[in-house]
Fold this sequence. Notes:
The chain is mainly β. The chain has one helix at 14-27; strands at residues 3-4, 30-37, 43-45, 51-55, 61-68, 77-79, 84-91, 100-105, 114-119, 125-129. Strands 1-10-2-7-5-4-8-9 form an eight-stranded mixed sheet, with no helix packed on it.
Amino acid sequence: MPLIIEKPKAFIAPSMLKELQTFTSDQGQVIVHGICKTENEGSFIRIWPTTFLFDHHSSHVSELVHYERISAFPVWTEIKAHSTLGFTLVFTGLPSTCKIFDLQEVIPQSNGFYVPAIVRNEQDVYYLDFSG
Protein backbone atom coordinates (compact mmCIF):
# COMPACT_ATOMS: atom_id res chain seq x y z
CA MET A 1 0.00 0.00 0.00
CA PRO A 2 1.38 3.47 -0.84
CA LEU A 3 2.74 5.57 1.98
CA ILE A 4 1.34 9.03 2.69
CA ILE A 5 4.23 11.36 3.47
CA GLU A 6 3.02 13.71 6.18
CA LYS A 7 6.06 16.01 6.32
CA PRO A 8 8.06 15.81 3.09
CA LYS A 9 11.71 16.80 3.16
CA ALA A 10 12.07 18.91 0.06
CA PHE A 11 13.38 22.33 -0.71
CA ILE A 12 11.17 24.52 -2.86
CA ALA A 13 12.36 27.95 -3.89
CA PRO A 14 10.29 30.57 -1.98
CA SER A 15 9.23 32.31 -5.21
CA MET A 16 7.99 29.03 -6.71
CA LEU A 17 6.22 28.05 -3.49
CA LYS A 18 4.38 31.38 -3.46
CA GLU A 19 3.34 30.89 -7.09
CA LEU A 20 2.17 27.31 -6.45
CA GLN A 21 0.15 28.30 -3.38
CA THR A 22 -1.66 30.96 -5.39
CA PHE A 23 -2.28 28.51 -8.22
CA THR A 24 -3.75 25.80 -6.03
CA SER A 25 -5.92 28.03 -3.86
CA ASP A 26 -7.23 30.19 -6.71
CA GLN A 27 -8.12 27.24 -8.90
CA GLY A 28 -9.55 24.99 -6.20
CA GLN A 29 -7.42 22.09 -7.39
CA VAL A 30 -5.93 19.15 -5.55
CA ILE A 31 -2.25 18.44 -6.19
CA VAL A 32 -0.74 15.00 -5.62
CA HIS A 33 3.03 14.64 -5.81
CA GLY A 34 3.98 11.01 -6.22
CA ILE A 35 7.32 9.27 -5.88
CA CYS A 36 8.25 5.81 -7.07
CA LYS A 37 11.65 4.22 -6.35
CA THR A 38 13.14 1.10 -7.88
CA GLU A 39 15.75 -1.20 -6.40
CA ASN A 40 17.63 -3.85 -8.36
CA GLU A 41 15.41 -3.97 -11.42
CA GLY A 42 13.82 -1.22 -13.47
CA SER A 43 10.10 -0.76 -13.64
CA PHE A 44 7.40 0.90 -15.72
CA ILE A 45 4.64 3.20 -14.53
CA ARG A 46 1.70 5.06 -16.08
CA ILE A 47 -1.48 6.80 -15.03
CA TRP A 48 -4.92 6.18 -16.47
CA PRO A 49 -7.17 9.16 -17.24
CA THR A 50 -9.76 7.29 -15.18
CA THR A 51 -8.00 8.17 -11.92
CA PHE A 52 -10.20 9.99 -9.44
CA LEU A 53 -10.48 11.32 -5.90
CA PHE A 54 -13.55 9.95 -4.12
CA ASP A 55 -14.97 11.95 -1.20
CA HIS A 56 -15.83 9.62 1.70
CA HIS A 57 -18.91 11.56 2.81
CA SER A 58 -20.58 12.51 -0.46
CA SER A 59 -20.94 11.29 -4.01
CA HIS A 60 -18.43 13.90 -5.25
CA VAL A 61 -15.68 12.67 -7.56
CA SER A 62 -12.71 14.88 -8.51
CA GLU A 63 -11.29 14.23 -11.97
CA LEU A 64 -7.68 14.06 -13.09
CA VAL A 65 -7.11 17.15 -15.25
CA HIS A 66 -3.32 17.27 -15.64
CA TYR A 67 -0.24 15.14 -15.03
CA GLU A 68 3.50 15.73 -15.31
CA ARG A 69 6.52 13.39 -15.50
CA ILE A 70 4.34 10.30 -15.90
CA SER A 71 2.76 8.83 -19.05
CA ALA A 72 -0.93 8.27 -19.56
CA PHE A 73 -2.35 4.93 -20.67
CA PRO A 74 -1.43 3.25 -23.00
CA VAL A 75 2.14 4.66 -22.90
CA TRP A 76 4.56 3.60 -20.14
CA THR A 77 7.21 5.67 -18.33
CA GLU A 78 10.36 3.72 -17.52
CA ILE A 79 12.00 3.94 -14.12
CA LYS A 80 15.53 2.62 -14.43
CA ALA A 81 17.05 0.35 -11.77
CA HIS A 82 18.17 2.17 -8.60
CA SER A 83 16.24 5.29 -9.64
CA THR A 84 13.48 7.49 -8.35
CA LEU A 85 10.70 9.06 -10.38
CA GLY A 86 8.77 12.03 -9.06
CA PHE A 87 5.50 12.96 -10.78
CA THR A 88 2.56 15.28 -10.25
CA LEU A 89 -1.17 14.74 -10.65
CA VAL A 90 -3.68 17.62 -10.66
CA PHE A 91 -7.35 16.99 -9.88
CA THR A 92 -10.43 19.18 -9.83
CA GLY A 93 -11.26 20.55 -6.40
CA LEU A 94 -12.95 18.69 -3.58
CA PRO A 95 -16.03 20.09 -1.82
CA SER A 96 -15.35 22.17 1.29
CA THR A 97 -17.12 19.53 3.38
CA CYS A 98 -14.67 16.78 2.35
CA LYS A 99 -12.44 15.60 5.21
CA ILE A 100 -11.26 12.20 3.91
CA PHE A 101 -10.93 10.91 0.36
CA ASP A 102 -9.51 8.01 -1.67
CA LEU A 103 -7.27 8.23 -4.73
CA GLN A 104 -8.15 5.42 -7.12
CA GLU A 105 -7.48 4.40 -10.71
CA VAL A 106 -10.66 2.89 -12.10
CA ILE A 107 -9.19 0.37 -14.55
CA PRO A 108 -9.85 -3.16 -15.82
CA GLN A 109 -6.78 -4.59 -14.02
CA SER A 110 -6.52 -5.07 -10.27
CA ASN A 111 -3.12 -3.40 -9.83
CA GLY A 112 -3.99 0.26 -10.30
CA PHE A 113 -3.11 3.09 -7.97
CA TYR A 114 -5.22 3.01 -4.82
CA VAL A 115 -4.63 5.11 -1.73
CA PRO A 116 -7.48 4.88 0.78
CA ALA A 117 -8.45 7.34 3.49
CA ILE A 118 -6.27 10.36 2.73
CA VAL A 119 -6.94 12.99 5.39
CA ARG A 120 -7.52 16.34 3.76
CA ASN A 121 -5.20 19.23 4.59
CA GLU A 122 -5.63 22.99 4.19
CA GLN A 123 -3.29 23.27 1.21
CA ASP A 124 -4.84 20.38 -0.81
CA VAL A 125 -1.29 19.32 -1.68
CA TYR A 126 -0.31 15.71 -0.91
CA TYR A 127 2.89 13.68 -1.12
CA LEU A 128 2.53 9.93 -1.74
CA ASP A 129 5.20 7.26 -1.95
CA PHE A 130 4.19 4.50 -4.40
CA SER A 131 7.46 2.57 -4.07
CA GLY A 132 6.15 -0.28 -1.95
